[in-house]
């Protein structure tokens, strides 16, 4: 059987950049030319935009694939690059963080202030015996101290493992144990959905007496920021208040240089397809690509832009595009603590207006939830400062892209749909604003210096107009260096499939259009096989979202006696539609709609109207759980689900 994926959807809308935007853009067409002429020299040049204590002479060592070493004989300090360097160039007074607390409090933190805090904290960490190679777990709300914690850990050469603050004590414990963390940095609690969500109690639970569990306790101290003001228990000798120790520490701290390949952080994947993997990143190559991509893809002009990436630091987007990329570039950015709908559903747009945000980087799940609520909400705010919009995390359906452009972007702001993964460390495929003519729904082109292909099961290029498996064909600076503690799983998961060719297998399906540009088709595990046709989830979902009634859709293949698999669709209906129509008969008309839009083969056998979809905590749809429902099976592992109640609601609705 062919491994190619059938292509059903045709999208012909195109948006060229304005001449003015192109003239002012950071990115240029020459970037592609210079990368094509000499890839290694190109990355060396990007790396030299950083400060190296010891300049590198080697660019890449790929003598032992898949274990790459980038800029191996160079040495740098990642925190120095994000902080001290900007003071040296006279930008200490520039605001680094425009922090907005959920209850309405605010803080403005300059580069000089953030540097001061990080230096003090670095001294505290060293006083606690934290140094090169030690692991520190960070379990915090979105407050300036969280960023300071990440930077102080890497400043002293240690490795952080940020655990999303919405995770349970069990998930935290698993991550603390996997990494063997010596220190946990946390807060008493943080604000979420209008109330204090406790964190320290979960840390206490995670570290509670484990006699007999067979796991050795590695954590020596817990450092706690006061944020929520909630009561917390205290373990004398182990627990320390941040406000007791950090202000009292010296503000003198010299950033030592560490080798380019020094481990920087461990971060677990979202767990959309299964058990999260502890992805390991290192220093020089990672920072090079995070900073470069942030600059050219988001079009950062640090002296004038107000940038806002809405991701939590618990995800890779929060690492590369909240902490490392923007701070290495000396940008001014918004950091928001809470949820988008607190205390009202226009909160994000209120922040855009208040802070004058010029660049917004968010996820399709957020855009679709705003679509569900309707355009009247964003329309109440002045969003005219926005000039670049970004999307990451899932394929963005063309209609969601158009809504983003028209309603949020004032019909002018270019949209960059950025494809990448925890494993890739930084953006790999994206338009460059000011250079690329954009296409709704397509991630488009590999960045300069990145080599991508779409291949069949044998590793052969599929050719334009065809779908297959997305691979990266050459090593890249911010590539993962392994899975923490599991080198075999690293090789097996990403490199075994195309071992002969030496390709990295991303696990995603993709298609090349007639121009050779890339359209993501969803995860390979989710591809459906209907009467011998291999259908992607993304295209059918996009057809559903193109219907005026639908805000969001998820499709899965459910076993079927006649066709092998049949398409089962779960859809969320827009509130504006429900205000004027009855949902009776909608399922039937959506089946017909998909048939008309993209062909009878894609017509869903079942359409279920639901109120919620199962999502990971970072907002990605977990289709494997819907497959269980559609096939009438017991629902599988739901531990990475944001809201575990959602599956019983959906199961009840389907029955
Ligand atoms: P796990 O690997 O544990 O299942 P995950 O893949 O959801 O979790 P992440 O690393 O956060 O963990 O997500 C990367 C994945 O997100 C990509 O492989 C792809 O499926 C999807 N993705 C990210 N950005 C885009 C995009 N712009 N277009 C399409 N898909 C995207
Ligand atoms: Mg993944």
Automatic annotation (TrEMBL):
<dbReference type="GO" id="GO:0016874">
    <property type="term" value="F:ligase activity"/>
</dbReference>
<dbReference type="InterPro" id="IPR032387">
    <property type="entry name" value="ACAS_N"/>
</dbReference>
<feature type="binding site">
    <location>
        <position position="534"/>
    </location>
    <ligand>
        <name>ATP</name>
    </ligand>
</feature>
<comment type="function">
    <text>Catalyzes the conversion of acetate into acetyl-CoA (AcCoA), an essential intermediate at the junction of anabolic and catabolic pathways. AcsA undergoes a two-step reaction. In the first half reaction, AcsA combines acetate with ATP to form acetyl-adenylate (AcAMP) intermediate. In the second half reaction, it can then transfer the acetyl group from AcAMP to the sulfhydryl group of CoA, forming the product AcCoA.</text>
</comment>
<feature type="binding site">
    <location>
        <begin position="192"/>
        <end position="195"/>
    </location>
    <ligand>
        <name>CoA</name>
    </ligand>
</feature>
<feature type="binding site">
    <location>
        <begin position="417"/>
        <end position="422"/>
    </location>
    <ligand>
        <name>ATP</name>
    </ligand>
</feature>
<keyword id="KW-0547">Nucleotide-binding</keyword>
<feature type="modified residue" description="N6-acetyllysine">
    <location>
        <position position="620"/>
    </location>
</feature>
<feature type="binding site">
    <location>
        <position position="508"/>
    </location>
    <ligand>
        <name>ATP</name>
    </ligand>
</feature>
<feature type="binding site">
    <location>
        <position position="531"/>
    </location>
    <ligand>
        <name>CoA</name>
    </ligand>
</feature>
<dbReference type="InterPro" id="IPR045851">
    <property type="entry name" value="AMP-bd_C_sf"/>
</dbReference>
<dbReference type="InterPro" id="IPR020845">
    <property type="entry name" value="AMP-binding_CS"/>
</dbReference>
<feature type="domain" description="AMP-dependent synthetase/ligase">
    <location>
        <begin position="90"/>
        <end position="484"/>
    </location>
</feature>
<feature type="domain" description="Acetyl-coenzyme A synthetase N-terminal">
    <location>
        <begin position="29"/>
        <end position="82"/>
    </location>
</feature>
<dbReference type="Pfam" id="PF13193">
    <property type="entry name" value="AMP-binding_C"/>
</dbReference>
<protein>
    <recommendedName>
        <fullName>Acetyl-coenzyme A synthetase</fullName>
        <ecNumber>6.2.1.1</ecNumber>
    </recommendedName>
</protein>
<feature type="binding site">
    <location>
        <begin position="393"/>
        <end position="395"/>
    </location>
    <ligand>
        <name>ATP</name>
    </ligand>
</feature>
<keyword id="KW-0067">ATP-binding</keyword>
<feature type="binding site">
    <location>
        <position position="550"/>
    </location>
    <ligand>
        <name>Mg(2+)</name>
    </ligand>
</feature>
<dbReference type="InterPro" id="IPR011904">
    <property type="entry name" value="Ac_CoA_lig"/>
</dbReference>
<feature type="domain" description="AMP-binding enzyme C-terminal">
    <location>
        <begin position="539"/>
        <end position="620"/>
    </location>
</feature>
<keyword id="KW-0460">Magnesium</keyword>
<dbReference type="Pfam" id="PF00501">
    <property type="entry name" value="AMP-binding"/>
</dbReference>
<feature type="binding site">
    <location>
        <position position="317"/>
    </location>
    <ligand>
        <name>CoA</name>
    </ligand>
</feature>
<comment type="similarity">
    <text>Belongs to the ATP-dependent AMP-binding enzyme family.</text>
</comment>
<dbReference type="InterPro" id="IPR000873">
    <property type="entry name" value="AMP-dep_synth/lig_dom"/>
</dbReference>
<keyword id="KW-0007">Acetylation</keyword>
<dbReference type="Pfam" id="PF16177">
    <property type="entry name" value="ACAS_N"/>
</dbReference>
<dbReference type="InterPro" id="IPR025110">
    <property type="entry name" value="AMP-bd_C"/>
</dbReference>
<dbReference type="InterPro" id="IPR042099">
    <property type="entry name" value="ANL_N_sf"/>
</dbReference>
<keyword id="KW-0479">Metal-binding</keyword>
<feature type="binding site">
    <location>
        <position position="523"/>
    </location>
    <ligand>
        <name>ATP</name>
    </ligand>
</feature>
<keyword id="KW-0436">Ligase</keyword>
<feature type="binding site">
    <location>
        <position position="545"/>
    </location>
    <ligand>
        <name>Mg(2+)</name>
    </ligand>
</feature>
């Amino acid at each position: 059987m062919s491994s190619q994926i059938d292509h059903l959807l045709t999208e012909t809308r195109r948006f060229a950049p304005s001449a003015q935007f192109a003239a002012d853009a950071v990115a240029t067409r020459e970037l592609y030319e210079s990368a094509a002429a000499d890839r290694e020299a190109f990355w060396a040049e990007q790396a030299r935009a950083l400060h190296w204590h010891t300049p590198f002479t080697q660019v890449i060592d790929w003598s032992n694939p898949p274990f790459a070493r980038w800029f191996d004989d160079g040495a740098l300090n990642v925190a120095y690059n994000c902080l001290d360097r900007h003071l040296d160039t006279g930008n200490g007074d520039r605001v680094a963080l425009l922090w907005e607390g959920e209850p309405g409090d605010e803080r403005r933190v300059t580069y000089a202030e953030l540097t001061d805090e990080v230096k003090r904290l670095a001294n505290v960490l060293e006083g606690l015996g934290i140094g090169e190679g030690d692991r520190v777990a960070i379990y915090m709300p979105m407050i300036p101290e969280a960023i300071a914690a990440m930077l102080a850990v890497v400043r002293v050469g240690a490795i952080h493992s940020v655990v999303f603050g919405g995770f349970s004590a069990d998930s935290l414990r698993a991550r603390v144990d996997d990494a063997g963390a010596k220190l946990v940095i946390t807060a008493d609690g943080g604000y979420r959905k209008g109330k204090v969500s406790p964190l320290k109690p979960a840390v206490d639970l995670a570290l509670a007496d484990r006699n007999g569990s067979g796991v050795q306790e590695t954590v020596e101290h817990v450092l706690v920021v006061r944020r929520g003001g909630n009561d917390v228990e205290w373990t004398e000798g182990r627990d320390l208040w941040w406000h007791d120790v950090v202000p009292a520490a010296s503000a003198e701290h010299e950033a030592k240089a560490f080798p380019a390949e020094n481990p920087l952080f461990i971060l677990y994947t979202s767990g959309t397809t299964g058990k999260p993997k502890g992805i390991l990143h290192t220093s020089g190559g990672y920072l090079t690509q995070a900073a470069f991509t942030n600059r050219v893809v988001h079009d950062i002009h640090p002296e004038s832009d107000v940038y806002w990436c809405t991701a939590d630091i618990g995800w890779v987007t929060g690492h590369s595009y909240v902490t490392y990329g923007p701070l290495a570039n000396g940008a001014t950015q918004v950091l928001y603590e809470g949820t988008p709908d607190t205390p009202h559903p226009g909160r994000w747009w209120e922040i855009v207006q208040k802070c004058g945000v010029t660049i917004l980087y968010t996820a399709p799940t957020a855009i679709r939830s705003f679509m569900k609520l309707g355009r009247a909400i964003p329309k109440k705010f002045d969003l005219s400062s926005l000039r670049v919009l970004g999307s990451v995390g899932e394929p963005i359906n063309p209609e969601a892209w158009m809504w983003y452009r028209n309603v949020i972007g004032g019909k002018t702001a270019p949209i960059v749909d950025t494809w990448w993964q925890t494993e890739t460390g930084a953006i790999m495929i994206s338009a460059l604003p000011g250079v690329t003519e954009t296409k709704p729904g397509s991630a488009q082109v590999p960045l300069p210096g990145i080599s991508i292909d779409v291949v069949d099961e044998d590793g052969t290029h599929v050719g334009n107009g065809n779908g297959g498996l997305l691979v990266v064909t050459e090593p890249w600076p911010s590539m993962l260096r392994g899975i923490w503690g599991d080198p075999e799983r690293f090789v097996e998961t990403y490199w075994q499939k195309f071992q002969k060719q030496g390709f990295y297998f991303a696990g995603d399906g993709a298609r090349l259009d007639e121009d050779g540009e890339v359209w993501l088709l969803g995860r390979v595990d989710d591809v459906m096989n209907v009467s011998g046709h291999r259908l992607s989830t993304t295209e059918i979902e996009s057809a559903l979202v193109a219907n005026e009634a639908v805000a969001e859709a998820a499709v899965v293949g459910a076993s079927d006696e006649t066709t092998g698999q049949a398409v089962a669709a779960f859809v969320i209906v827009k509130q504006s539609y429900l205000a004027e129509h009855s949902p009776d008969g909608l399922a039937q008309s959506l089946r017909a709609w998909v048939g008309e839009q993209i062909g009878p083969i894609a017509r869903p056998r079942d359409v279920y109207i639901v109120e919620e979809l199962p999502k990971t905590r970072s907002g990605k749809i977990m289709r494997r759980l819907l497959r269980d429902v559609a096939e009438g099976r017991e629902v599988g592992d739901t531990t990475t689900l944001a809201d575990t109640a959602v599956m019983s609601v959906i199961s009840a609705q389907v029955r």
